[in-house]
Amino acid sequence: MITGLEETQVPLVGRYHSSMEPDIPSDEQDTRNGTFSPPRKRSKNGCLTCKIRKKRCDEIRPTCGDCTRLKKPCEWLDPNMPEDEARQLKLKMEKLEAENKTRKRRKMVKTLETKDDNMINDNEQMDALEKLVFRPFTFPESVSEQFSPLTDDGDALPLDSDSLPNNSNINENYSFPKVEPTLGRQPLQSLALDLKANLGTFSPLSCQSPFSGLAFLKKIEDVRDDKIQELNNDNNNEAAKEEYMNNLFEGNLSPTLPQTPSFLKLTNLRYLDGTGLQLYQYYRDKLARIISVVPEEENLYLKIFLPMAEQDLGILYGIIAWSGFHVGNEFYENQGLHFIKKALNHINENPIDVGGNNNVTRELFDSRLATYLILCSAEICSGDVKKWSYYLSCGAKMISSQGINSFNSSKHRHWLVTNFAYHDILTSSINERGMHFDIRDYEQIINLNTFGLDPLHGISKPLFHIIGEINNLAMESKSALIGELGDDLSVNLSKIVAAASILERKIDSSKPSPHDLTSFTKMKYIELQLTLFETFQLTCKLHLRHSVLRQNPNSLEIRLLVRELMKRLDVVLDTSVEGCLCFPLFIAGMNCPTESDRQLLLGKFKEFNKRYRYGNVERAGIVMEQVWMIDPTGDKCVDWYEVVKKLNWDLSFA
């Protein structure tokens, strides 16, 4: 081994919402226009593209209406065409259509297999409803319509005034259309502009909305980009919106199931419509696993935050906003903005006085702190460089009001404070403001083994408080270098060098807790965790030399450390533990001196971001490339904290 909140005004752009209507049977009333439509059949004379897609064709030649709208090649079978040529054309179009779909639609499974409702006797009805009670996503259409995520004018709907429901465990054995992040974020691009020009381009102060400046982070780039652009240009095109949503969610958007009022009264999920439920499931089945570096049974994003969301609407809305930002594209990002606003409304409508004597229950106190932490994470995911820090400060005030050491009383409270510490340590503004709490308090909390692993630190938690100590020493080093030459400066610099030597020995002697290693049953996972530990050891060594001792990337020692760190990154990237690698990748990038090393690191950064899909990773890449432009040969030690400051960002590496 290597040794009371003000509501944030957020304009909602792209004001449209998904159509939640199921397919309209031909022999029933057309609910869109209130008229009865006779059964319609597909024409045999339609274009080949519509036939393969199993859609009705309007038979307009040379390009039918659907192919024009969806920008698809429109091919027609000529009756006089040779059979072999027709077969080849059909195979070609089928292959092209298959390539344009990232997933195949699955056949819908009927919840209750009946031929006629009248044939079900009373006992069977009771049995069926009893089963549905324990399937959380059996959701009636009426509720979906009542709680549409966006109204026509983009305003938030009022919350139900009923009291919050009692806690109830969620049975995970259910099926609901899955959300997949189909739209990758824009790959990092080389910045050819100078630093001053880029400051104007990327500064959030130049944007009307704190979120509108993130457009460059989230360009649409996959095969369905044309559909999204069409939706943005024509908000009234309900058919296109419905088809895009169906493709994204593998079919039916709002399944028509028997109403189960008994279930709807059990959890806060009753406040969500179809899109909200899909984003909730996306958090549970994908997002919470992406950000965790520990096994599922230790994943507190699932074990603690999800049950808390059943009791508190602020947590629930925050989780759904987080998912919306992570899924990407304008529609879901707007959903994220909308649910952030709903979470803030919930906080404002239910204020608590953390410093007063108003008998705030511990349950309510912890839920409010969890809400701030989740909103902080959601904003970081969106690429925000301002608001996340404000939510973290709100959390700091709450923790301070009860004393940081009081959060070691239970596993879920310990998780809240370790989550806070992780985000407080991995921030660029720490070089200006310092940490919210003393690093010795963080060391005591993070290294506590009573409650096992947490999903952010994993077995590397002994090294995170060292990162905090390096950050503090970097501030002292920066202040000392500003001073004039003299005896005082010599004394100060000697103290800093001595402190750096102590930190170096701490890094070398750090070891993962044997108690933490017992959480892993397979040797391959233990080896992966140990390599992750070594990755953070090397990151600490580089961070210490760059930020405190001011060594330049071309120094022999730093070049050797970068090489070793690259080897570890090759092992842990694209694995279950890569969720915490933003900071190691960034530190490695700061210390790459040659063009070949930089291109190699940039490639790793891009591939990581395609999988991880976090806006702050994009921002970190921008800062990294800015540093390279300032120091093209690796002969300078660039103060990257100053680069972030000039960009007017408060950047998180969490």
UniProtKB/TrEMBL annotation:
<dbReference type="InterPro" id="IPR036864">
    <property type="entry name" value="Zn2-C6_fun-type_DNA-bd_sf"/>
</dbReference>
<dbReference type="InterPro" id="IPR001138">
    <property type="entry name" value="Zn2Cys6_DnaBD"/>
</dbReference>
<feature type="domain" description="Zn(2)-C6 fungal-type">
    <location>
        <begin position="46"/>
        <end position="76"/>
    </location>
</feature>
<keyword id="KW-0539">Nucleus</keyword>
<protein>
    <recommendedName>
        <fullName>Zn(2)-C6 fungal-type domain-containing protein</fullName>
    </recommendedName>
</protein>
<dbReference type="InterPro" id="IPR021858">
    <property type="entry name" value="Fun_TF"/>
</dbReference>
<feature type="region of interest" description="Disordered">
    <location>
        <begin position="16"/>
        <end position="44"/>
    </location>
</feature>
<dbReference type="GO" id="GO:0008270">
    <property type="term" value="F:zinc ion binding"/>
</dbReference>
<dbReference type="Pfam" id="PF00172">
    <property type="entry name" value="Zn_clus"/>
</dbReference>
<dbReference type="GO" id="GO:0045944">
    <property type="term" value="P:positive regulation of transcription by RNA polymerase II"/>
</dbReference>
<dbReference type="GO" id="GO:0000981">
    <property type="term" value="F:DNA-binding transcription factor activity, RNA polymerase II-specific"/>
</dbReference>
<dbReference type="GO" id="GO:0000976">
    <property type="term" value="F:transcription cis-regulatory region binding"/>
</dbReference>
<dbReference type="GO" id="GO:0005634">
    <property type="term" value="C:nucleus"/>
</dbReference>
<dbReference type="Pfam" id="PF11951">
    <property type="entry name" value="Fungal_trans_2"/>
</dbReference>
